[in-house]
Amino acid sequence: MTRRVAIVSGASSGMGRASAEALAARGWAVVVNFRTGAADAEAVVAACRAAGGDAVSCRGDVTEDADCRLLAETALDRWGRIDGVVNAAGTTKFAHHADLDALSKDDFLGMYAVNVVGIYQMIRASAPAMKATGSASVVNISSSAGVNGTGSSSAYACSKAAVNALTLSLARALAPEIRVNAVCPGFVEGRWVAVHLGAEHYPVHKARFEKIAPLGKTVTNEDVAEAVVWLVDGARTVTGQLIGIDSGVTLGLAPPR
Prior knowledge:
Helix content is 50%, strand content 15%. The protein has eight helices and seven strands; from the N terminus they run βαβαβαβαβααβααβ. α4 links the parallel β4 (84-87) and β5.
C-alpha cells in the first residue's frame, strides 16, 4: 500500500472538511471522522473519492479514548498505515469576556475535553502507527484566540492556548518520526460562525476583522486547508510551529509615524 493515510477529526464540515478534501486531491486516503451528521460525512467521503483519493467515514467522539482508538483501527484495518492526523474537532461557547458569570466550570471542562484532551487522545491512539512510517505529521487546528486571548470566550481562548502548548510539547517528545504543528486561524468565514453570531452580528464582526487585518480580508476554510496540506504533505523540516492564518491580525496595530 503506497497511498498515504490521514485521520481528520471533525471532518464533516468546516476546516476539517476542507482539509480532508484537499488531502484527497493530493491522493491521500482519509478517515472522515464525525460525531453527528452522518450524511454530511458521507458527502465528504464522496467528494474525497471524486477528487482522486480514497475515504471512509467513522463516527467517534474524541473525548472518548475508545473512539479515538477506533479511528486509528479503522485506518489500519482499511489501509494498513497512518501518515498524518489533522485534529479539527472543536467546540466553544460564545460569551463576552467581561461577563464573568457567563461561563461555568462545566463550560471550561467541556471545551478542554474536546479541544485539548481530544487532541491528546487522538495523537496517542495514532502514534505507534505513525512512528512506524518514520515520517508522519500531526496538525492541530488551534486559533489566534490562543495567542491573543480573544475569540468566542475566555474559556475557548484558554483551551486553544493549551493546544499550542501541547503542540510544542509533543513536537519535542515525538520527534524525529512525527512532526507536530498547529495552525491558528483568525476570523473564519462560514456557516459555523454565522450561526453562532447570528445574522445581525456576523457581518459586523466580519467587517471589523477586515478593517484591522493588514491584508484586509477574512479567512476561509480553504485557506486553512491549504496550510494544513502543506504541513502534512510537505514541510519536512518544520515541527513545533504555530502558524498564524489571520491576514496579519496578530501583528497588532501599526505604530504611529
